[in-house]
Amino acid sequence: MSQKDFYEVLGVSKTSNDDEIKKAYRKLAKQYHPDVSTEKNAEEKFKEVQQAYEVLSDADKRAAYDRFGHAGVDGSAGGGPGGFSDFGGFGDVSDIFEQFFGGGNRTKSSGPRKGEDIRLQMTILFEEACFGTTKEINITRDEECTRCGGSGAKSKSDISTCSRCNGRGIVNSVQQTILGKVQTQRECPDCNGTGKVIKQKCTECGGIGKKRQTSTLKINIPEGIDDGQQIRLSGKGNAGGNGGPTGDLYVFFKVTPDDFFVRDGSDIYCELPINFSQAALGAELEIPTIHGKVKLTIPTGTQSQTKFKLKNKGIKNLRTGSLGDQFVIIKVISPKNLSAKQKALFEELATIEDNSDNIFEKIKGVFKRFKDK
Fold it and tell me: Which of the listed CATH numbers 2.40.10.270, 2.60.260.20, 3.20.20.60, 2.30.30.30 matches domain 258-334?
């Protein structure tokens, strides 16, 4: 029986990071858990999710799976499905691939390495998203050691080329495997893949070349940022290695909903309650927008759910720079707890039959007669 692709099982792409894989797994495990799920074949689907996560959450197994598919992590070769524990007496399947291919991507490059990116979430108000703002954040990250300049050495004279790997950061070795002699490349154990040996380490960072520091950053939030969008701050992530560039900082935004306005892209929607007389006779009302108050004319006979457009009263589009529109949706409110005067008015209105084009003129006459009573 053909097995399903593990990435498809979890609903993630081959470029997904560990956090995305973990998030997808938790969601599906909760959905198909036999103790809570009522779906058909929930137990079978739960096992598929478990097996997919077991492989994709492990760096070695995932690398083997990406190279060779299910053949690289097939539990039927020993230990049963999901076991991955035995391979013809040679131990864990990752050990076999280490013997054949030198551990895959475990070998480090002795050249410059870019630092890891940092991702964080920031919650901002609706108005801040509309018009942009500046925020200060405290962020803890790996920064280049100022004393040694990232070299990890006490002085430049303490740095020498590794004699074992001649500065390459990797060493060759020949191993006996079930396929015969195989030459592999591994990270140099003397310099840990850096290609350099440090005699005396920096007293500030202990030879790492980086220090964990907390610093304050100013975040300029652009006008028109929306919920779920992100900005990238180049070079504001963790420090790189061997003189490599600093990683980036990604800020994901969560926008607090507004009590009155509802956003849809660059457009804004709001609901405007009006009373029966305003709907029947028309009115001129002041309407709040994010840009200030404007006057809106309500025509005679306006019905509930009528939509009015206020051009260029929306939010700036991040890409085009143009303003969206504001849409005002009318909601006619029926009166409650009528007074005697109001009840008499509506009783007279009820006697007027809507059988002519002058119905609103008649209604105006009724309102006029009851105005001063």
Answer: 2.60.260.20
> What Å distances lie between residue 316 and 3, 170, 226, 311, CA to CA?
49, 53, 11, 12
CATH of domain 118-255: 2.60.260.20
Burial of 42 (0-12, 13-18, 19+ CB in 10 A): middle
The number of CA neighbours under 13 Å toward the Cβ of 32 is 19
Please list the pLDDT of the chain residue by residue as tens digits (373 residues): 457 899 999 999 989 999 899 999 988 988 888 777 778 788 888 889 999 999 999 888 898 888 878 877 765 333 333 333 333 333 344 444 444 444 444 444 556 788 899 999 999 999 999 999 999 999 999 998 888 888 888 888 888 998 888 888 888 877 766 556 677 778 888 887 788 888 898 988 888 888 888 999 999 999 999 999 999 999 999 998 877 889 999 999 999 999 999 999 999 999 999 988 899 889 999 999 999 999 999 999 999 999 999 999 999 998 899 999 999 999 998 877 878 887 887 777 777 655 445 555 555 554 555 455 4
- DSSP annotation of 111 reads S
Instruction: Kindly report the pTM of this predicted structure.
Output: 0.57
Length of the chain: 373
Task: Count other Cβ atoms within 10 Å, centred on residue 263.
Answer: 20
